[in-house]
Amino acid sequence: MSGTIVLAYSGGLDTSVAIRWLAERHDADVVTVTADLGQGKDVAAIRERALRIGARDALVVDARDMFVRYFVFPALQAGALYEGQYPLATALARPLIAYLLVEAAHRHGAQAVAHGCTGKGNDQVRFDLAVQTLDPELRVEAPMRQWSMTRDQEMAYARERGIEIPVTPAKPYSVDANLWGRSIEAGVLEDPALEPPEDVYEWTAAVEAAPADAATVRVGFASGIPVSLDGERLDGRSLIERLNELAGRHGVGRVDHVENRLVGIKSREIYEAPAAVVLHQAHAALETLTLTRDAFRFKQAVAAEYAELIYNGKWFSALHQDLMAFVQSNQRFVTGEVTLKLHRGTCRVVGRQSPFSLYSRALATYETGDAFDHSAAVGFIRLYGLGTVQQARVQTLPLRDQLPELPPPPRPEGEG
Ligand code: ARG
Q1: Ligand 1, closest atom to CA 267?
Q2: Is the Cβ atom of 358 under 6 angstroms away from ligand 1?
Q3: Ligand 1 atom closest to the CA of 173, numbered from 1
Q4: What is the pLDDT of residues 287-316, one digit of tens each?
Q5: pLDDT surpassing 70 at residue 170
Q6: Among residues 20, 47, 94, 126, which one is catalytic?
Q7: For residue 90, which atom of ligand 1 is closest to its CA?
Q8: Dist. CA 187 → ligand 1 center (Å)
Q9: Cβ 85 under 6 angstroms from ligand 1
Q10: Using one digit for the tens of pLDDT, what is the confidence trace for 320-351?
């Protein structure tokens, strides 16, 4: 068939080969889309490369602010950490790239979009699903899932067609990066028993190399969104960039995670996400001050659900809109400042304050000025425990001899 295919293009070998492979295989024009999400690559050079290889057009989109505003900060407000650890940098970028692909496909009258994901990962699911939910009429091509070329065959394919192969000796890792974090997998990392070699890290200092003196930073939030550092108001992107630099210098932000992929594989992933780690910690600390106990508990359940949804590629779903509506409402009073100390790989909250703080010193204090009504505690406990005490009276006490015996408490080694 002929027509136009819009390809998500990173500038690497796989998607470079894909430009020609798609064009030849489908007799199609290939239009590439490269999104700048803060991955620190020269997108203008990537565009030139796409055109040299034979793309009919090569689009570059500076999507950094869009990424922060519509993807990163909502996920931070939601407290979305996959399996409690991974701040989801890659997973959050996919729906945005898919959105840009679909938009470009519509503008160029394309019948298909394409991406360079393999058949083993989560990213193919995220791309395919996002595209299908945005426009079910579009076909999704994934050359890496279809061609059965080995790395050597791929290089030969590239050489035959004059596609430059990156000369820099590639590190034996698979890396994905954007301003919310860097992900490194494969190579020696595939043995989860082994400590990652220092060369996997680019954004964070080793504990041993980090400054001996701690740094203190104060993060300001408005309704759950970070707005300032040490009292200086900053746009989201600058704030993240600064924190990546500062926390990274102090060795903060390394995550070593054996994670459960959607496709059933466990994989060992290394993440570097200095700003994300600091901001999630700061944000959670502010919530301890500003959310009621009920809201805090319910929010934790929503956070876990939200993280799953992002990780599993269901960004463009009604459930996401529903959860988002809750989170936006829930975050109304999450405003204030959190102080953190960064020191040799650790990040600790050391202070928090909010105009909407529910913390009352008068209620909490053990010193003079205590406003807590101690006499109310007795009545409270009576009603609070009424059901449990009634159960003891009727069931557990009278029947204690007939109830199955509890296992004996464990004894320390070498005793009796
Ligand atoms: N495991 C992460 C995720 O599923 C990152 C995937 C991409 N990382 C990479 N190094 N290629 O979101």
Answers
A1: 1
A2: no
A3: 10
A4: 999 999 999 999 999 999 999 999 999 999
A5: no
A6: 94
A7: 12
A8: 14
A9: no
A10: 999 999 999 999 999 999 999 999 999 999 99
pLDDT in tens, 128-149: 999 999 999 999 999 999 998 9
Give yes or no for residue 85 having a pLDDT over 60.
yes
What pLDDT band is residue 114 in, cutting at 50, 70 and 90? very high
Cα 121 to ligand 1 centroid, rounded to whole Å: 8
Q: Is the CB of 14 under 6 A from ligand 1?
A: no
Note the pLDDT of residue 270: 98
Kindly list the structural domains of the chain, giving each domain's residue range(s) and its CATH number in brackets, ordered by start.
4-173 (3.40.50.620), 177-357 (3.90.1260.10)
Q: Ligand 1: which of 185, 189, 267, 271 to mutate, most ligand atoms within 8 Å of CB?
A: 185
- Quick one: three-class SS letters along the chain? CCEEEEEECCCCHHHHHHHHHHHHHHCEEEEEEEEECCCCCCHHHHHHHHHHHCCCEEEEEECHHHHHHHHHHHHHHHCCCECCCECCHHHHHHHHHHHHHHHHHHHCCCCEEECCCCCCCCHHHHHHHHHHHHCCCCEEECHHHHCCCCHHHHHHHHHHCCCCCCCCCCCCCEEEEECCEEEEECHHHHCCCCCCCHHHCCCCCCHHHCCCCCEEEEEEEECCEEEEECCEECCHHHHHHHHHHHHHHCCCCEEEEEEECCCCCEEEEEEECHHHHHHHHHHHHHHHHHCCHHHHHHHHHHHHHHHHHHHCCCCCCHHHHHHHHHHHHHCCCCCEEEEEEEECCEEEEEEEECCCCCCCHHHHCCCCCCCCCCHHHHHHHHHHCHHHHHHHHHHHCCCCCCCCCCCCCCCCCCCC
